[in-house]
Write a structure and sequence with these properties.
Elements: E1 14-15, H1 17-47, H2 53-56, H3 81-92, H4 95-99, H5 102-132, H6 136-140, H7 148-161, H8 171-188, H9 190-199, E2 211-212, H10 224-250, H11 260-269, H12 279-284, H13 298-311, H14 324-337, H15 344-370, H16 374-389, H17 406-413, H18 422-427, H19 441-453, E3 457-464, E4 471-472, E5 476-485, E6 510-516, E7 521-527, E8 533-541, E9 547-557, E10 565-574, H20 586-593, H21 597-603, H22 606-616, H23 619-634, H24 639-661
Parallel strand pairs: 1-2, 4-10
Antiparallel strand pairs: 3-5, 5-8, 6-7, 6-9, 9-10
């Protein structure tokens, strides 16, 4: 809404509170509406979690007490490792803890404030609308059939109530006093009443009023200096500071929200000879994991020193970096994969490291792929498996099963019906599984349930070129990696990864590595699909020379040891010269002879005129005239356009000759 003010000049513009209220409501609505939905969805996820305690604690996984040649496995309370993890996740996602989250509290406070301001604006706008509307009966508070005596009585009462002398400085009372006077005039004066009935205003038809949608307090001279200071502070200081802070923060991160400093560090320390033993230190040195060493707890530092001393006794290779932060992270990751005991304070720091592990490991694989390091990529994915299952490189894959210790593992891999690893063990029927002797019924049920959780894949690999029956040199080849999770029913999704020692829940994922027989990595791609049947396609270029090639395809799990699949696929590449000659369709060839828009504009109606002359004249004369006209038109055409034009005329002549012969 805009209003014209005549206080200063005929064209002076006044500030309008109502328009400003509309603008403020619009701006607040842009923030309030989506934030309200986010808050409600957040609270709903807390009150109605999709992940229940039973979804995580699927077994009673009690600790085993086997001793390896290198260390003694830490004992967990009798409630079981998976139940302890589920209880910790439940506490971490409890209503009290999530509702006291700093981010939630800040957003909720801002949202409540915004709603209060929005409601105040709505109330003020409603009141202004009531003032702006003109209904004399409503203003005077009388019925529409009231008599003159009752109207005069109401007018006297309200005029005394809203008189400016009784309400000094009250603009609302002043406006109401004016409206009461106009309402009385509209009901008692015949001309004013006629104007009100016809135009809605006792003064008659009103001209367009124009004003600025800003609050009126900006016109107060006492506020000018304060408004100027606020304006300069917001535009010159606050907004540039926010933009600069955002830019300084965002410029640190690259793809997948990984810091550029982390990529630089990985590029510096990783090589084609990097082994799994080196990777805990590499992960600990990432910029995201360089949070300060906790101070103020001498017992915590003393425990960390004892842990490092213990790990140096053959459990951890000599560190390359002695920086306290990197050394601490390296020690915590080694303690995790060796399942060593640690205090709750150190476990909090370990959980921070493991929380960043998945993203950072993907960044490592991405870097190794860019350098074509096959073995390094394999080692990085193996390291991811070790972190997920809290096992190390010499541990057997059967140690991922609950209640399995050295005794049970040795019994499974030796003697009759021995198995080499977890994959073969999962294929054994439950009634013939070894290593269950001496276990209780509950423990046997846990093992059987864990075996049903772990994926059993039936894989198929195929190489082809889309819409072609053969593969030629430098063709874009598609590799189809299809696998079926036989451990789940049709229409179901893959269960959460069985990882009782990992602090958070994980979804299954797989890496596809394609390499040649010389050990060069061609491509690496991650599969995150959770469906029973997965068809994943990756593309790469065929070799530049014809021949028979063999490629290695590795399907590696990011979560389980001993379930990786390696297959060899053959590719027969034919020379590009043996490909059948491409023949265009006749209709496509005719398109080349069609006149372009430019030709049509330049030649005008020359073709039509030529056709008319051809029908009105006899044989040779017609041909001569057409050729003369063609030569004149050719003068304004390019060489290509003249060639196309002559080809069209020649086809027309041939068509006419065939018609005459017929």
């Amino acid at each position: 809404a805009f209003q014209r003010s005549d206080r200063y000049s005929p064209m002076a513009l006044d500030y309008d509170n109502s328009a400003f209220y509309y603008f403020g409501m619009t701006m607040l609505g842009i923030y309030v509406i989506p934030t309200t939905f986010w808050i409600l969805a957040y609270v709903y996820r807390i009150m109605m979690p999709q992940q229940r305690f039973s979804d995580v604690a699927r077994t009673s996984t009690t600790p085993v007490s086997f001793k390896s040649k290198r260390y003694s496995l830490a004992r967990i309370p009798a409630t079981g490792v998976e139940k302890a993890k589920a209880r910790e996740l439940s506490e971490r996602q409890s209503v009290t803890r999530l509702l006291t989250n700093a981010r939630f509290i800040i957003n909720a406070s801002l949202l409540v404030t915004a709603w209060v301001v929005l409601l105040m604006l709505i109330r003020a706008l409603t009141f202004d609308a009531e003032l702006a509307s003109f209904d004399p009966f409503k203003i005077l508070g009388v019925a529409s059939n009231a008599e003159d005596k009752e109207i005069r009585k109401a007018y006297r009462k309200l005029s005394l109530e809203y008189h400016p002398d009784k309400n000094p400085g009250n603009k609302i009372a002043e406006e109401m006093f004016m409206k009461v006077a106009k309402a009385y005039e509209a009901l008692t004066d015949d001309e004013a009443k006629r104007n009100w009935l016809e135009y809605g205003n006792p003064d008659g038809k009103q001209s367009l009023e124009v004003s600025i949608g800003l609050p009126t307090f900006l016109l107060d001279e006492a506020n000018h200096y304060a408004i100027l200071c606020i304006y300069l502070g917001v535009l010159v200081v606050i907004i540039p500071a926010i933009v600069a802070a955002w830019y300084q923060y965002s410029r640190k991160f690259g793809e997948n929200n990984v810091m550029y400093e982390t990529y630089s560090f990985f590029l510096h320390v990783l090589s084609e000879h990097s082994t799994v033993k080196m990777l805990p230190e590499v992960l600990a040195g990432a910029a995201e994991n360089r949070f300060p060493v906790s101070v103020g707890a001498s017992s915590r530092q003393a425990e960390l020193s004892r842990l490092i001393t213990k790990l140096r006794q053959g459990l951890m290779q000599k560190p390359r970096f002695e920086h306290p932060i990197v050394l601490k992270g390296n020690a915590l990751l080694h303690a995790h994969v060796h399942r060593l005991e640690m205090s709750a304070l150190l476990r909090v720091d370990l959980h921070k490291l493991l929380g960043n592990a998945s993203t950072l490991i993907d960044a490592m694989v991405e870097l190794a792929q860019s350098q074509r390091w096959l073995q390094t990529s394999i080692n990085i994915i193996d390291f991811s498996q070790c972190l997920t299952q809290a096992l190390w490189i010499k541990d057997h894959s059967l140690a991922q099963l609950p209640h399995f210790g050295n005794k049970e593992i040795h019994h499974c891999i030796k003697g009759k019906s021995a198995v080499k690893g977890l994959r073969e063990y999962l294929d054994v029927p439950d009634e013939h599984k070894k290593g269950l002797a001496g276990m209780s019924d509950m423990q046997c049920a846990d093992i059987e349930h864990a075996c049903k959780i772990m994926p059993r894949l039936r894989c198929k690999f195929d190489l082809y070129v889309e819409d072609e029956s053969e593969i030629a040199e430098r063709d874009l080849v598609t590799l189809l990696v299809a696998f079926d999770r036989s451990n789940i029913a049709d229409g179901r999704l893959a269960p959460l990864v069985h990882a009782p020692y990992f602090p958070s829940t994980r979804l299954e994922s797989w890496w596809i590595l394609v390499s040649d027989t010389a050990g060069n990595l061609i491509l690496a791609d991650k599969v995150n699909a959770q469906s029973k049947v997965v068809n994943h396609r990756v593309k790469f270029l065929a070799p530049p020379q014809a021949g028979i090639y063999v490629f290695n395809v590795d399907l590696k799990s990011t979560d389980y040891l001993g379930l990786d699949v390696r297959e060899q696929v053959k590719m027969t590449v034919i020379p590009a010269a043996q490909l059948p000659e491409y023949k265009a369709h006749p209709d496509d060839l005719n398109l080349d002879d069609e006149p372009t828009l430019f030709e049509q504009v330049m030649s005008g109606n020359a073709d039509t005129d030529s056709d008319t002359d051809d029908t009105s004249r006899d044989g040779d004369v017609t041909n001569c005239d057409a050729e003369v006209g063609d030569s004149l038109d050719d003068a304004v055409l390019t060489v290509a356009e003249r060639r196309r034009r002559r080809a069209r005329i020649q086809r027309k002549k041939q068509s006419k000759d065939q018609t005459c012969a017929a």
